[in-house]
Amino acid sequence: MSRGGLTIEGIDRLIHEPARLIVMTILNAVESADFLYLQRETGLTKGNLSAHLAKLDAEGYITIEKTYKGKIPLTICRLSEAGRIAFGRYRAEWEKFMKKTRLKRA
Amino acid sequence: MSRGGLTIEGIDRLIHEPARLIVMTILNAVESADFLYLQRETGLTKGNLSAHLAKLDAEGYITIEKTYKGKIPLTICRLSEAGRIAFGRYRAEWEKFMKKTRLKRA
DNA sequence: TATATATGGTTTGTGACACAGACCAGTTTG
DNA sequence: CAAACTGGTCTGTGTCACAAACCATATATA
Lengths: 106, 106
Hints:
Chain A is of the alpha+beta class. Chain A has one domain: Winged helix-like DNA-binding domain superfamily/Winged helix DNA-binding domain (Arc Repressor Mutant, subunit A, Orthogonal Bundle), CATH 1.10.10.10. The first copy, chain A, has helices at residues 13-16, 18-30, 35-42, 46-58, 81-101; strands at residues 33-34, 62-69, 72-79. Chain A has a three-stranded antiparallel beta sheet with strand order 1-3-2. In chain A, a hairpin with a 2-residue loop joins strand 2 and strand 3 (72-79). Chain A starts with 12 loop residues before the first helix and ends in a 5-residue tail after the last helix. Chain A binds a DNA duplex through helix 3, helix 4 and strand 3.
């Protein structure tokens, strides 16, 4: 099966998922954000957001720090260096691909 | 649950899927393509490609014409007008979103 | 005539995933 | 004490991407 000329090999599907892309985008902008802030910004449910964060954490794209605000638990997320690199790469690859889609029509 | 400011509502997930995005991109460029040509170009397996085409067809984004080349079956795919519009919209929405991701870092 | 091999796909099985709702632990308020 | 809020995690469910198996037909080959 010869590989086609128009593959998307460089696309990181972990980031490609819209929900996670939003999270990555926010974290890239704000440097650190707590769980509820992310929930408000993204509009995701707690469960969904929690799962996405866990996935990004497992991949090493973000760090999750569990701490306390007074006596109340507080989860703080940050983009890791690896995450920052992956995010940059994703945008570059995507940009590259999207340029190709602008081919003249037949 | 108040909606966040950074949603991706305009993103058509049917098109967002990389495999289908490639198919749409090809069809947008070539005007018509048969099954095996698409398979070669995309590098997808038959089954996978078949499923993706069915999905695009169900949504009305492409038309599938089953005909014969001599005595051998031949499936020809074309982007429908709706598909062309949706594809254009997708690219525009995506461009818009990606611009927002370029926010200055904290 | 058997049989192998290619063409052009569709159907089926499976594992991963997105999503929301139920649940839980601790805290503050009445 | 009870109710309600905060800050999350765990669980169940439906959907999906993917490849392998299968099917129907056509052509080559021995």
